[in-house]
Amino acid sequence: GESVGLHLPTLSVQEGDNSIINCAYSNSASDYFIWYKQESGKGPQFIIDIRSNMDKRQGQRVTVLLNKTVKHLSLQIAATQPGDSAVYFCAESRNSGGSNYKLTFGKGTLLTVNP
Amino acid sequence: DSGVTQTPKHLITATGQRVTLRCSPRSGDLSVYWYQQSLDQGLQFLIQYYNGEERAKGNILERFSAQQFPDLHSELNLSSLELGDSALYFCASSVRQGAYEQYFGPGTRLTVT
User: Fold this and answer.
1) CB atoms within 10 A of CB B35
2) Quick one: CA dihedral B13, B91, A85, A91, positive or negative?
3) Which of A41, A48, B72, B86 has the fewest beta carbons under 10 Å from its own?
4) Which residues of B fall within a CB distance of 8 Å from A89?
């Protein structure tokens, strides 16, 4: 079965607010956790990753938090903009041998930014 | 634009038929991955190739096959199509084999009638 899942299927925020997208995982053997963004009519786009031995990683306007105790991952988007409207997927990656990482995606959360 | 191209963009065919989806990776990328995206199953990994060789298999049906050619483009062959095969099929590529940072193409929407 799937090892990565999402708490909420949809999230609606006002432009300028901060967004928090949550994800639960069940596999403690994951090496990396990754967030992808998929805009309507496009393929998924890599946003940010976090190694399993880290708690926090920051990018441009995005922060990913990893809580291994409760197996929870979150993506925070600061000052959300209309262009952030998309489906966000969390994914986990495990080394399946020979530095070959296999991605397993969660179901996705639809983020809608209201102007 | 990710640099990954997929053709065709849309494909409509009948049950029992066979189709071929084509993918050209980003320039310099040696790994190609195929994914199926449907409403009920989400984004499912099918198969991965690296420099012409199969490297990993996911939830790929026996009716489906793929290959990567010497020029690094890849084709996904779907045969004996069923209604349930209707989905978006994405190709992704990366420089390294099995990288988790992958560049996705725009997808091919397959409709089986």
Assistant:
1) 28
2) positive
3) A41
4) 43
Task: Please report the pLDDT score of residue A100 as a whole number.
Answer: 65
- Round the average pLDDT of chain A to a whole number and report it: 89
Query: B2 and A45: CB-CB below 8 Å?
Result: yes
A98 backbone dihedrals φ, ψ, rounded to 5°: 65, 35
pLDDT tens across the length of chain B (113 residues) = 899 999 999 999 999 999 999 999 999 999 999 999 987 778 999 999 999 999 989 989 999 999 999 999 999 999 999 999 999 999 999 988 778 899 999 999 999 99
Three-state DSSP at A18 gives: coil
Interface test with B, best of A100, A104, A107, A109 (most B CBs within 10 A): A100
CB contact under 8 A, B106 and A102: no
pLDDT grade, residue A38 (50/70/90)? Answer: very high
Cβ-based interface (< 8 Å): residues of B facing A: 2, 4, 33, 42-45, 48, 55-56, 58, 90, 92, 96-107
> In the predicted model, is pLDDT for residue A2 greater than 80?
no
Contact yes or no for B98 and A98 at CB 8 A: yes
First-residue to last-residue Cα distance in chain A: 38
User: Tokens 């949809």 map to which residue?
Assistant: A10
A105 within 8 A of A4, measured Cβ to Cβ: yes
CB count within 10 Å of CB B52 equals 14
The SS3 assignment for B84 reads helix
